[in-house]
Amino acid sequence: MPDKINRVVLAYSGGLDTSVILKWLQQTYACEVVTFTADLGQGEELGPAQRTAALMGVRPEHIFIDDLREEFVADYVFPMMRANALYEGLYLLGTSIARPLIAKRQVEIASAVGADAVAHGATGKGNDQVRFELGYYALAPDIKVIAPWREWDLTSRTALIEFAEKNQIPVPTDKRGESPFSTDANLLHTSSEGKVLEDPWQEVPGYIYSRTDDLLAAPDRPEEITIEFKGGDAVAVNGEALSPAALLTKLNALGKRHGIGRLDLVENRFVGMKSRGMYETPGGTIYHAAHRAIEQLTLDRGAAHLKDELMPRYAELIYNGLWFSPEREMLQAAIDHSQAMVDGTVRMKLYKGAVHITGRKSPNSLYSETVVTFEDDGGAYDQRDAEGFIKLNALRLRLLGRRDRA
């Protein structure tokens, strides 16, 4: 017999899987279900989720649909971008960075409605189960977690549809039969996995792409834009001040038009297996390039190189679901400290899937044209100093050379 649960908060999309989970929770645990749908800018109409939840007996006051777009970008995406985070050198962590916010809000709702459990629809093979549950336990150590995919015997899409039909759960026409691939979307990216993408030798079919235009259809002339930064965060595009979510939305539109941000990746999941996914991160790809460009002017060499050393560890923590861990917070404090003087403007051209930096300027620039020039620098740099510098750095190499060649 399952544990006695009185009320559970379900992370609910309104789709087939989570609707089946909703009914399964009601039947298996004989409990009241509270649904929580997060608007993270996934671009879907969320009204159907509300209607389906109501149809399945969820009380109106227990149907939560929260607009979290600004919080998502300001408090999660932007801090991650300050670190220039890339998992395995390529992945901009679009799915990973959304999970801690969903977990946080889910736990808050559970506390507000007096729920004694939370539930999610992540499978037992993926990373998301880890990300959700590490978030839950970090914020509510004694919460009960229900993961239906690790408990039930509905092991195929056919079984899900049969369960749905038996329980009068609406099944959209496009959900019947085997789904060709699965997707996850938010304001930062769209990811696609499974079925037609499972063979890493096969090229990603064109119909998979939803956030980026085909390069053949992209404009034949580059588009020049500027991005302004303050304290390490972007604050304006083309001179227009924008909120974090509005700014990322603007960059997404620009990136889409020019086919920017596609990534075909075979990655190492935290649970141990390799998986192949296709990620589209148009605005994030532009943002990442611009942030690195403004740091080139404003960060000291030691700080910049240390950030690059810390970044893989930081990215791995986010990928593995450890956003609320003390080590991630420690790294964040160091990263944020480095951003105090990261102000200025980056100019770039967008063209046929690529981002080309064409200029950068900052009131806090460490770049000195006087020092670096090949022309007469008026004594700003004494080239004779280089001889002693080189000999001191060569001392150990010379000693090694004398010994090993003796």
Integer-rounded radius of gyration: 25 Å
Q: Give the biggest beta sheet.
A: 5 strands, parallel
Q: Strand order of the main beta sheet, please?
A: 3-2-1-4-5
Structural class: alpha/beta
Total strand segments: 14
Keywords:
five-stranded parallel sheet, 40% helix, Rossmann fold, alpha/beta, 2 domains, Argininosuccinate synthetase, chain A, domain 2, 406 residues, five-stranded antiparallel sheet
Structural write-up:
The structure is a single chain. By secondary structure, this protein is an alpha/beta fold. It contains twelve helices and 14 strands. Strands 3-2-1-4-5 form a five-stranded parallel sheet, with helices on both faces. A five-stranded antiparallel sheet has the order 10-9-8-13-14, covered by helices on one side. Helix 1 links the parallel strand 1 and strand 2 (32-39). The longest helix has 20 residues, at 385-404. The protein is elongated and about 85 Å long. 36% of the residues are buried.
